Amino acid sequence: MKVTVPKPNRTFGLTDILGIVGLVGLLVARYIPVARLIPFWGCALRETTGWPCLGCGLTRVADRVAHLNIAGAWDANPLGTVAALFFALMVVVTVLHLVFAMPIPEVSLSPREWHWARIAGAVLLAVNYAWVIVKTKFPYLLA
After folding, report:
1. CB 131, CB 78: distance < 8 Å
2. Global pTM value
3. pLDDT in tens, 27-52
4. How far apart are CA 86 and CA 70, in angstroms?
5. Contacts with 9 (C-beta within 8 Å, 6 or more apart), sequence order
6. Is 132:76 a contact under the CB 8 Å cutoff?
7. How many CB atoms neighbour CB 45 within 10 A?
8. Cα-flanking dihedrals φ and ψ of residue 2, to 5°?
9. Around Cβ 93, how many Cβ atoms within 10 Å?
10. How far apart, in whole angstroms, are the C-alpha atoms of residue 17 and residue 31?
11. How far is CA 15 from the centre of its chain?
């Protein structure tokens, strides 16, 4: 892994896009009750089969993180909570970058490191999905 730190700048980049998306998403989750306003909102797979999808709980995660209920968000979907907190971090980094010209370190991975990162991501996704399934279908196993 190679990390380089550029000179202080206000160059708009991917981190800033993630920060803006995170800010908008968390503000919507905080102030607009999307699940109540949109009549078809919900998991079609869960409604038809009773089994959760990979993204089940993400609306609750966004709502709970926006209301600073991290434990409740973790209970709904652990990996979604990590993602929501990452977006919140990107909001802070974007403000620091664009207002104070804080440099954003650039990280580059070797092909081997990317390979292991993809494997780790797939394993995390599978473990998270298993958690969501157990939490939804077999909650007595967690009691």
Report:
1. yes
2. 0.90
3. 999 999 888 888 888 888 988 999 99
4. 13
5. 101, 103
6. no
7. 14
8. -120, 125
9. 17
10. 21
11. 14
